[in-house]
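Hi,

I'm pasting everything inline rather than attaching a file, because the server keeps stripping attachments. The sequence lines come first, and each chain or strand is labelled.
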Amino acid sequence: MEKPLTASLRQYEVFVAIAETLHFGQAAAHLGVAQPALTQQLKHLETAFDGALLFDRNRRRVTLTEFGRALLPEARALLQQARRVEAVAEAARTGQRGRIELAYVGSASYAGILGRLLRELRAGAAGVNLILRELDMDLQIAEIVAGRLDAGFVRLPLSGVPETLLTRTVHTEDILLAVPPDHRLARVPSVAMATLREENFIFSHLGPDMGFAACAYQLCADAGFAPRVAHRAPQFTAIVNFVSAGLGVAFVPTSAARMKDAGVSFLPIKDAKVQSRIGLAYLRDPSNPVLRRLLDTIEPES
Amino acid sequence: MEKPLTASLRQYEVFVAIAETLHFGQAAAHLGVAQPALTQQLKHLETAFDGALLFDRNRRRVTLTEFGRALLPEARALLQQARRVEAVAEAARTGQRGRIELAYVGSASYAGILGRLLRELRAGAAGVNLILRELDMDLQIAEIVAGRLDAGFVRLPLSGVPETLLTRTVHTEDILLAVPPDHRLARVPSVAMATLREENFIFSHLGPDMGFAACAYQLCADAGFAPRVAHRAPQFTAIVNFVSAGLGVAFVPTSAARMKDAGVSFLPIKDAKVQSRIGLAYLRDPSNPVLRRLLDTIEPES
DNA sequence: GTCCAGTGATCTGTCTTGCTTATCACCCGG
DNA sequence: CCGGGTGATAAGCAAGACAGATCACTGGAC
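And the predicted assembly:
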């Protein structure tokens, strides 16, 4: 057990104020209190130091003693640190400083949204310690619910998640149809959903009610058919590879169309009524101020 | 006017104690208070930060919030600085830290006493800022009385100085007689005062009642004669030079006999009853703790 | 489910602290 | 010698800190 501290911040504050003006009355005005308070506080401080005087008070002139002179820089440093703590507290409270742990699904990294958002997050908040990692959607949800992850970027929608898990859309993009080089649609400028009824589709592994797959199924449902799923693959890179190999066609988000892979064509869909949305998933009433600040930089939607 | 500090050291102390144990009861025991006090103080601290919580208290487990985690290192630094201030205060109070301004007469530097005393002063007190300069005795006294000098090494005795000026002997040495090479006494091993009645003497500038000159006059008076002063010189180096030139003989302290100058002989005086003393002169009840500490290292004499 | 041990929050009364106002004591310049 | 300026002192009051007792909630044992 360390020995208890014997003097208070207030006492050092008084000491430094008097040392700066060498005048009790002016120092009192500066601190916004009456003069007797200073006499008392200073006396308390001196008592804390075994009665060693900090000032020579000659009734007419106040001067620092050698003891006071030795103490002054340390006392100043203490006050400065005290102010610093409060400044840091303010920054931490408003999320301009602190730590946040985020994750993102692989396909979110194509969209360029990550860089933009995180740049915004750090704008004027250099003290933010950001831990970012790629993680699949289902694992993200588990980590967030368990409190081990602050938030994650996922493909919406979610389903079967606790009510306390909220999402907010941060990016929306069109869905394209990826077709192999030798496919009958490879050269057309765009395609209508109705013409795809008989195609073999490559879908992601995720179930039909979550993420990008849910949008893809919705597209087909809107067109009045259920897609024939010929293959499944975990990521869009794999899906596009499969398409390139001629195993079928696939829906992909616009951002995934950057991979001009072995002659795969990416066709706009004329009558698509749904888009793919990337959202940030997080627990309701987040306590992490950095996360709150991040949410504030996003328009409050969904 | 800086904005006032909103939180006290005590509150940070409580915060850090709880953060270290993550247990209110144990932290309270550690601080030597009852548990409710911690709840209160912590709440006050949180209120000071706009109500932002520092801990999640789940009744069963106490964990730092992200806000608390961000604040903890700064709060620790603050407490460390507070402890440092008190340590510095203790060191300054006991004279192990601080500033002291000393002076010495030229002849004190021969005696080697300066180095020894000041080495003792700095032993275990590396924080002492020592300002040292050579200064004539009369100027030293003026500076000390005016409060511009803490203390000075002079040749005793003093006279005609304020009662508040005290001295303490730090070194005592025999007085020798310096004689020119071609003097009738140049070859004798020692000399008796009675044989010097008719000599021409070289004395220092200072009056007959202060410093080394007072001792020299006393020697002669003890032998029953008043010295015939042929010349005066300000320092012992000059006096020995005069002796070397054959202008007369002179009394010098042993330490000044180091200058084996052009064949001057330094003879012990058989029946000398006085010695020359170097003393530290200072104002009574010194407020400078470093000076007090210096005085403590000297046996309280004179 | 029921109970129990553990733990933080709350309540209350007491003592301490910090501040204010009023006044005193002292120094110094005219 | 007197008056302005300044720090110290005194008294009173409001706020704060703390102890002790108690409450309220959690989570594990069975």
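The mean pLDDT of chain A is 90.

If the labels don't parse on your end, tell me and I'll reformat.
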